[in-house]
Amino acid sequence: MRKEIALIVVDLQNDFCPGGSLPVKNGDKIIPKINKLIDRFTENSLPVILTRDWHPSDHCSFIRNGGPWPEHCIQNTWGARFHPDLKVPKGAIIISKATQAEKEAYSGFDGTDLASRLRSLGVNKVVVTGLATDYCVKNTVLDALNLGFQVILPKDCTKGVNVKPKDTAEAFMQMKKAGAKLTYSRFFLNEFTGHAASSSSS
Ligand SMILES: [Zn+2]
């Protein structure tokens, strides 16, 4: 079976959840919904990709180095680990980004081999979820579209930082305008049941 659709979970790491150093408000509340998607993809032998911010301790995005953010997601620390409630499946593809001190990367495609790995699996459509809507999710979605992937974005499976109050709403509009299909996970799962059934019977 061609694995034409993949699930991407962006940066569901401790530091981006309540209790972490750069928490997204209610960032952990989306995890049960994402776990349902992970279950469905895993049951259908479809790829699950987890991106993670994976910074050296002297990363340029940190305030003390002139960047905008407090220290977060430093390689091999608790803050960089995936949230313990996230059901990371066996065989999940882990993509580490922003691993060089001098370079920031919000998108899971920036400086990684994500695009080539998806193409080698026959993927042409991705479902993007995770944190944060107005930074890493938005940039991952826009890059995916630019690289020729179709993108589905379940709005209930992502949360934004909102440095400015409307950032998340504007990010949704920008992604929609660029061609992403915005939906909700329950609608997606209803359609997906049909998709999975027709794929496996062919
Ligand atoms: Zn970062």
Give the strand content.
15-25%
- Tally of DSSP β-strands: 7
Class of secondary structure makeup: alpha/beta
Helix content: 25-40%
Radius of gyration: 16 Å
Topology record:
Layout: E1 5-10, H1 31-43, E2 48-53, E3 93-97, H2 114-120, E4 125-131, H3 133-146, E5 150-154, E6 158-159, H4 167-178, E7 181-183, H5 185-201
Parallel strand pairs: 1-2, 1-4, 2-3, 4-5, 4-6, 5-7
Bound molecules: zinc ion.
Report what the structure shows.
It is a single chain. The protein has 202 residues and is an alpha/beta fold. Helix 3 packs parallel to helix 4. Helix 3 links the parallel strand 4 and strand 5. The protein has one domain: Rossmann fold, CATH 3.40.50.850. Helices cover 31% and strands 17% of the residues. The site of zinc ion has 6 residues, from loops.
Task: Fill in the keyword field for this structure.
31% helix; seven-stranded parallel sheet; alpha/beta; binds zinc ion; single chain; globular; Rossmann fold; 202 residues
Describe this structure in a few short sentences.
The chain is an alpha/beta fold.
